[in-house]
Design brief:
The chain has about 425 residues and is of the alpha/beta class. The chain has two domains: about 210 residues, NAD(P)-binding Rossmann-like Domain (Rossmann fold); about 200 residues, Rossmann fold (3-Layer(aba) Sandwich), CATH 3.40.50.720. Strands 3-2-1-4-5-6-7-8 form an eight-stranded mixed β-sheet, with helices on both faces. It has a five-stranded parallel β-sheet with strand order 10-9-11-12-13, covered by helices on one side. Helix 14 links the parallel strand 11 and strand 12. The longest helix is centred in the middle third of the chain and has 31 residues. It is elongated, with a radius of gyration of 24 Å.
Length: about 425
């Protein structure tokens, strides 16, 4: 009699397996579309009925994902639902839900655990469950494994459990889901074997590691590496500012070295769902082992201070011109957390808007990728994106260049703005109305 493992691998390889993707956001939706493109029947599950309705109509809610890809998937049988009981129909269940921090800057696994609890009543022998949500080492085997086995299913024999961290980079034209190498670790060797088969059908390169904990730590290392290096250049930015040195000019010069240097760029703070959050998952878990991650926490402290530092630069620039933040009109250019996308999660632009509003400024924003200020858990602005033209630009006391979208007409802005506070190093040449921050 063929084992559950061999049966499942056979279904994956001949593409008769149904791929279930749970959580259809910036990670889950591209993955679901990739499996559909690879020839699988895909089941999408999400708690948000608005997302399901939008996808069913063949429309989109994430700017960089082509509508054509959604419609092609629908034509190939892409089925979306809010009904978790449908998980029984899937042979693979890939969890792509958020892992934020709570108000104490501690890991909030509620999305992962609630999703797991919603899925486990519908699990059956012959399925694989893979977690992609970034988390601390030990989550898969400490939290998911016992919940699955409490259902009476033996992991590694009847069902299979993996961790494979997401590596999406929205807005990066050089990489798509298929071409970004995928790390995968299994709870058992059999779990890993099934996981490699699952991802190998949709991703060009799958990188096996010895355990789910290694895979979980790999993702944290990737993001901590970036957070620490960005913290370094943000600190150097402050030093250079005091010395009247342009940090961006320094970085451009250093980047000509063909070895031993990788350029990282300062900004108004960290944004996105990964880099501002993921390092704290490790610092929290490390305390269980009696380790204090001073280096990581110092970088977090530097990066989280950047919005306040920029606010100080705005105040100084206005003071020179005989004005104060209170009562001034500020137009924030770009509220997405990075250029050329519509994702505002953890955006330092929004943090600066809050700080400016608290100081009494009249705040507006312009972002061609975010026409209406989105619903956010912690920030509330009843605003729409302001169109940019010479007259509108000239009407503001300060333009805060927070996100350097390619769509902005920088020469026009520089010509008509009374004052631009540039946090991204866009303006290379000094000008009386340009202040670097």
């Amino acid at each position: 009699m063929q084992s559950h493992k061999d049966t499942l691998i056979g279904k994956i390889r001949d593409k008769t397996a149904v791929i279930g993707v749970v959580g259809l956001g910036y990670v889950g939706l591209p993955l679901a579309l990739r499996y559909s493109e690879a020839g699988f029947r895909v089941l999408g599950i999400d708690i948000d009925p608005a997302k399901i309705d939008t996808l069913t109509r063949g429309e989109n809610y994430i700017e960089h994902i082509p509508v054509e890809a959604i419609r092609a998937a629908n034509a190939s049988g892409f089925d979306c639902t809010t009904d978790f009981a449908r998980a029984h129909d899937a042979d693979a269940l890939i969890i792509c839900v958020p892992t934020p921090l709570n108000r104490f800057r501690e890991p909030d696994l509620s999305f992962v655990l609630n999703t797991t609890e919603a899925l486990t009543p519908h699990l059956r022998p012959g399925q694989i469950l893979s977690l992609e949500s970034t988390t601390y080492p030990g989550t898969t085997d400490e939290e998911l494994l016992p919940r699955i086995e409490a259902r009476g299913l033996k992991v590694g024999k009847e069902v299979f459990l993996c961790f494979s961290p997401e590596r999406e980079d929205p807005g990066n034209p050089d990489f798509v889901t298929r071409t970004i190498a995928k790390v995968c670790g299994g709870v058992t060797p059999a779990c890993l074997e099934v996981g490699l088969a699952l991802y190998g059908q949709a991703i060009d390169q799958v990188v096996p590691v010895s355990s789910t904990r290694v895979a979980e730590m790999t993702k944290l290392l990737e993001n901590i590496h970036r957070a620490v290096n960005i913290g370094l250049v943000n600190e150097l930015k402050i030093v250079c500012d005091r010395m009247a040195i342009d940090i961006h000019e320094v970085i451009r010069a250093a980047a000509t070295k063909p070895f031993g240097f990788v350029p990282y760029y300062p900004g108004p703070g960290l944004g996105g769902h990964c880099i501002p959050i993921d390092p704290f998952y490790l610092t929290w878990k490390a305390r269980e082992y009696g380790v204090h991650t001073r280096f990581i926490e110092l970088a977090g402290e530097v990066n989280s201070h950047m919005p306040e530092w920029v606010l100080g630069k705005i105040g100084d620039a206005l003071n020179v011109r005989g004005k104060t933040i209170k009562g001034c009109r500020v137009l924030v250019l770009g509220i997405a957390y990075k250029k050329n996308i519509d994702d505002t999660r953890e955006s330092p632009s929004v943090a600066m808007m809050e700080l400016l509003r608290t100081k009494g400024a009249e705040v507006a924003y312009s972002d061609p990728h975010v026409p209406v200020f989105p619903k956010m858990r912690e920030h509330h602005f009843d605003l729409r994106s302001v169109p940019l033209d010479p007259e509108s630009v000239a009407g503001y006391d300060v333009l805060l260049l927070a996100t350097n979208h390619d769509a902005f007409d920088y020469p026009m802005l520089g010509l008509y703005a009374k004052l631009i506070v540039d946090t991204r190093g866009v303006y290379m040449e000094p000008a009386p109305n340009i202040v670097k921050a």
